Structures are given as structure tokens and as C-alpha cells.
Amino acid sequence: MPKAPVGSYVRQNVEVALNEGGTNFRLLAEMTPLSVFILQGTGFVYVNPAAVRLTGYSSAELLKSKFYSLFPVESKKIMRKWGLQVQHAETLLSVHGEFNFIAKNGEEIRIDVSAATIEYEGKPAALVTALELNEQRREEILQDVVNRIAQAADGAKTLDDLFPALHAIIAEVMVAKNFYIALFDRQEELITYPYYVDEYDQPAKQVKPEKGLTEFVLRTGKSLLCDANLHRVLEEQGEIAQVLSAWETIADLLAAQIVVCGEHKRGLMQQLLTGQTRFKEFVKSGKKVKTRYGDFPEDWSQVHMGDIADERGKKNHGGKKLPVLSCTKYRGLVNSLEYFGKRIFSEDTSTYRIVQRGDFAYATNHVEEGSIGYQNLHDAALISPMYTVFRTRAGVDQEFFFKLIKTELYRHIFEVNTSGSIARRGALRWDEFALIKVFLPGVPEQKRIAAVLNTGDREIELLQKQLEALKEQKRGLMQKLLTGKIRVK
User: Where exactly are the structural domains of the chain?
Assistant: First the structure.
């Protein structure tokens, strides 16, 4: 009887124990030499002692980190998507594969990973087990695969029985959602696909060999592990047709255009929001007023925050079930659960502040870091009591005002006022925030400035969507080239 790979029985027992109950699961997980992780959202909600030993991080450090942060830079985005897909059963129910991760000491370690969709504390999650691979273990796994393939070939009555069995065995040791078997008829000069499984496409019945990856493998008679870099090398060597390079060139141009548009937008914000550049129809005086933060138009109103806004934010004493928000430096207010992938806020939200649509909120202790946002996500939501909530009065366009206070100039103004705060070191409470001076144009000019900057935002957003779509097309093209769906000369 062939020997099963190290850890295979342990993995099965871990899943069974989890289904039977938390106590059994934790008992087994704490004792097993196999590293066990539970992913929920983008973070870990459980790690066992073996996982601590494998990664070099403490349990507390792992539970505070994003699971994809353990992987090399070039793999983070892919692994984040993979982990979320497993949690929501959007990939294979049980996924196996080999991956590299970076331990705390900087060492890159190869691991054999198995993952399964589970429910943990009533929410979708992923049970992940990992085993460090050394030569002995790798040979053990490969030998088991070879033995099982031999058994499948011996027991299959027809090729139609054999091919799905081969696919199932391969899928246990690597991701194999897309899998095909190609046969080459030398006399007829034709490639056929007796077995073909693809997430999206159906295979051609038979094709003439040209310059694709399938033909390269058939021609060389050697196995091939092909990524985008190797594909590029094969293109340059003339072994396969140059196809991906065109996609990469366009992607590079789009990425450069996004950078240029971002720089242009930042420059335009600085010019328009400080009155250095103006629309002629709104100019009543060309004179400037000098301040410690720069020169502003004389015909703009000079007011204090407290003159144009009022503190708000009643506490949620009634315990209303409302979405909870967090504030980010660049995006402003975001849905906490969606952004962090897990609950980082208290279960008891009775002390949280209610933020109505159209309110602003800033981190009382960290506004100098840019933690200020505009609530346009929900009719009503909640935010930590560590935030100050306020609302602008009539005479202030809210979109204009949000763009103004998110500029580097106002981040600096907040920093200066925070440093001088007498209420508590590092905090800027409403009484002091209300004393900050603001230069405002009339409402029509505010609306025009906001409209121009919104157009720039939409242009950048469109370019980013085009770039993502192009990357997705490239990934699809790579798959089609690998499977021979696209034929190139």
C-alpha cells in the first residue's frame, strides 16, 4: 500500500474535529505539528503553536496582521484574492498547492498548503494548514502521486475513466481548476484534446500545431512551469509568438498615464483650492491676503471653522444596529467591515457616535495624519467615540469643503494646531478645531472647483478600471495560450 504524504491524515482529522466542535478542534490543533490557520476576511482569527514556530511571529502578531502580508511582494495581491475566494467557496472546495512565504527573520520558506471553506463563529472562513517542504517531504508527496496515478491507470477501464481520475489526483497537490490533456497525431499533424476542463471556455476539437505553449512542450518533450517572465523569455527567443508583450506595453502606458493624471490633479487642487488659479467670472479683486500658510484672494471670506460648522454626533444610546465606519488617510470614511475584512470595533456600540449623511468626522487624536472624512455612504452610520463629528452650515459646498480639508496644506494646519493644543497632548478637540481659519470663495465658485476636481477623479478612476481590465485580459490570454485555445503563428 502506498504511503500517504506527511500531514494528510492530520489535515483530515483537523477538519473533522472542527466540524465536531470547538473544543475537539482546539485540542487537536494545539497538539499537531502541522501549522493551522483560520482566515476570516483579510486577517487571521486563529493560529496554533506550530504556525507560530513556522512563521517566527508571535500569536498576537499574527492575529493583528493581514494573512497575505506573509507572502513575497509579487504574490500579495494574488494570495489575498485566493484567501477570500476560498472563504466564500468561489474556488475549489479544497485547495492544495505549494507557496513561498517570508518568515519573520526574512527567510523565504516553501510550504505545502491545504485550504477548505468553513464557517467559523457563524461567518465564512477558511481553514488553512501548512507544512514546510524539504526534499524528503516533497519526494514523499510526489511518490504518493505517482503511485496513485499508476493505480488509477491500472484500474480504469477506459481513457474516459482515467482522465478525470488523473485530474482529481493532480488537484490534490496543486491548483488545477483549468486542466487539459493534449494528444499529437504526427501523421495527421493535428492536436486533439480528449480531456479539457476550463472555467470559461470549450476547446477546439482539433487544431494544427503552430507557435504556442502546447506545441513548445510537445516539441521539446519536457515539462514546463511557465509564468509571465518565462513566457517573455520564450517570446524573445522566438520559441513562441510575441503576444503578451503588446499587453504589457499598453499596461505600462496606462500606468504611466495614471501617475501623470494623479500629479496633475494634485497640482490643480493646490492651485484651485488656495485661489492661485481662478475662473475669471468669479474674480472681484486681484489682490492677495498674506497669511502664515500662504497668500489667498482678498475677495474670499476669511472665517473660523466654528463660523461655518457645528459639532454634532449624538451617542448611540439606543443601541441602533447601524453600519460602523472607520477613517483612512486617503479615502476618508469607509465601511469598517469591508475595508478591514473583519470586525475591529467593539460589540457594544452604545457609546459610538451617530454620523448622518452629510456629516464630517475626524480622529480627535490623529487628525494631523489626515484622518478626516465625509459621510456620504449611508443615511446614518456609527463611528468610534474617539472621533469628533461636525456638519457645515449653509454657504459651504460639502464636496468642495472635503477636498479642501484633505489637502496637504490643511493636514499641516491640523498638525500645527494639534501640537499647540492645551486640552491634551496630541489631540485636537472641537473647541480648538473651531478656531482654525479657513479661506472660502463664494458658493458658485466652490461648486465649480469641486466639479473640475471631480472630473479629474473620474478620469483617474476610469484609467484604473481600464488597467485592471487589461491585467485581467492578460491573465485570461495567458490561460488561453497555455491551453491552446488561442493559436498563434
Answer: 8-138, 140-240, 301-440
Integer angstrom CA distances of residue 443 from 169, 397, 448:
68, 6, 9
Q: What is the pLDDT of residue 1?
A: 33
Question: In this structure, which topology does domain 301-440 adopt according to CATH?
Answer: Adenine-n6-DNA-methyltransferase TaqI; Chain A, domain 2 (3.90.220)
Please report how the helices 228-236 and 443-483 are oriented relative to each other, as an axis angle in degrees rounded to 10.
70
Instruction: Tell me what the mean pLDDT of segment 39-57 comes to.
Output: 91
289: its cell numbers: 491676503
Residue 9: the pLDDT is 42
CATH of domain 8-138: 3.30.450.20
pTM for this model (two decimals): 0.49
The reply to whether 301-440 shares the fold of 8-138 is no
Query: In 3-state terms, the chain is what percent helix, strand and coil (to 5)?
Result: 45, 25, 35
User: In angstroms, what is the C-alpha Rg of the chain?
Assistant: 29
* pLDDT tens track for 246-273: 666 677 778 888 888 888 888 888 889 8
Residues in the chain: 489
Q: What pLDDT score was predicted for residue 444? A: 93
C-alpha torsion angle, residues 93, 96, 100, 102 (rounded to 10): 50
